[in-house]
Amino acid sequence: MIHSTGYVLVPDVLVEPLGDHWVAFSPSSGESHLINDTSAAIVEMLSCESALTLAQACTALAAEVGTLPADTEGLVHEALQTFVRAGLVRAVRLPRDTHP
Amino acid sequence: MDHPDLPNPQKTSARRRLIRGALSAPALMTVCSGSAFAAASNLRCLANAAGATTPPAAWGTPGTDTYLRVRLYRVITCTTTAPSPDCVAQPALHYIRGNDLNMYVRGPGMPTDSQYLQIDPVSYVTIGSPVPIVVAPPTITSEVLVDQYVAIRFDSSGVIVGIGVPGSGGQGGMVGMSCWLSAFPRP
After folding, report:
1. Is B11 within the bounds of a domain?
2. Is A43 in contact with B23 (Cβ distance < 8 A)?
């Protein structure tokens, strides 16, 4: 079966505003991260239960800022990879037919 | 029935902070934990020592040697000589405790968890073999944990080959002159 990649939030990740920025704590790594509005918005779109594909995340972010999803793809992809390395987000395999 | 508007306790939304038509690059900076700062501080003191002095001559096999900073114990032995029952305190001796090395793979002849290894505060080398500290008459021994540290040096086989020596060109002089050593007089 062909699979695609989805992204879910690591359980119990905490994100709180701190001045003009945000602080995200990952219980899996035990580290805290200072993130900007764009990063926090992407984290906010994700949930622990339902995985979001890159395309879905791009569409959601583009709708927030009024741009085309294709214009956000590079940013969102980079952000998700960074979040996975930071222990904030987990990549999961999805059946391609259920998540286009 | 109409409900009056109540204050909305909803959390601040990151998405609402986004500016339409202007999306900045996502950024993430990891905030160092306290333990990471502490580790960096330990290494910093060695780096400062290295920058301030001429590195010592190689001793043993430096590429595979490892330093471990451990606490020092001062042991006072009290002996009696018949027929006098009076206890005569002997000069304090300095030991490192095997239990403090539990995270380290120990080689042959190194103290077990219940043993101690004596350190000479003058020559800065180990003395004899590991011994148990016995708290029992007629030899009364008291163990005192002192708030001082030594940097012991293991070779690749896990054997202690020396400790940091203050003012010496060899035997871990670099470490001995750093803040890793607080037990003995420093130059």
Report:
1. no
2. no
List, as one string, the DSSP characters of B61-110.
Answer: -TTT-EEEEEEEEEEEEEEE-TT---EEEPPPEEEEEGGGGTTS---TT-
Establish if A100 belongs to a structural domain.
Answer: no
Q: Write out pLDDT tens, residues B85-114.
A: 666 666 778 888 888 876 666 777 788 888
Contact B21 A75 (CB under 8 A): no
The domain tally of chain B equals: 1
- Domain total of chain A: 1
Residue pLDDT, tens place only, B151-186: 777 777 777 766 765 444 444 555 555 666 666 654
Identify the domain containing residue A26 by its residue range. 3-95
**Distance in Å, alpha carbon of A97 to nearest chain B alpha carbon:** 29
- Alpha-carbon distance of B26 to A47, in angstroms, equals 18
B186 falls within a domain:
no
ipTM of the complex as predicted:
0.83
| Cβ contact B126:B142 at 8 Å | no
User: How is residue B121 written in tokens?
Assistant: 């505060």
Stretch 16-45 of chain B: residues touching chain A, C-beta under 8 Å: 17-31, 33
Residue A68 is assigned to a structural domain of this protein: yes
Is residue B2 situated within a structural domain?
no
